[in-house]
Specification:
The protein has four helices and five strands; from the N terminus they run H-E-E-H-E-E-E-H-H. It is of the alpha+beta class. It has a five-stranded mixed β-sheet with strand order 1-2-5-4-3. The C terminus is likely disordered.
Length: 119
């Protein structure tokens, strides 16, 4: 099993593999007992959000991680992947802007996270 940090890095790498945009990692460990990290990413279309979710699942399973749940793949507007201490939200830009999870959680991004460094 991967540590939370390694799991988060694997998720970000999988998202970057197939061109997710606006990848954000939020430390929720002090705000929720349910999970420690939230990864939020955008896909350009419903098809891409589903492909991103599939790719994350494949890569994490290859690392021996258990996928606890997947939701939203029917429409692809917002796909959620539950990996225990890390939750992944993959959304089309309009849905992401509407729900604005970053503001809702009102938390700072993790420092030194590859996902949050300028390209």
């Amino acid at each position: 099993m991967l540590t939370t940090e390694k799991k988060t890095q694997a998720i970000v790498a999988a998202l970057e593999d197939i061109k997710a945009t606006d990848i954000t990692v939020i430390n929720t460990s002090k705000l929720s007992s349910l999970f420690d990290r939230m990864v939020i990413a955008s896909g350009n279309s419903n098809r891409q959000t589903r492909a991103l979710a599939d790719h994350v699942v494949v890569k994490l399973k290859e690392s021996g991680e258990e996928i606890l749940g997947r939701e939203g793949e029917e429409t692809g507007d917002w796909v959620l992947i539950d990996l225990g201490e890390v939750i992944v939200h993959i959304m089309v830009p309009a849905v992401r802007a509407y729900y604005n999870l970053e503001e809702l959680w009102n938390v700072k991004h993790l420092p030194n996270s590859a996902a949050n460094k300028p390209k």
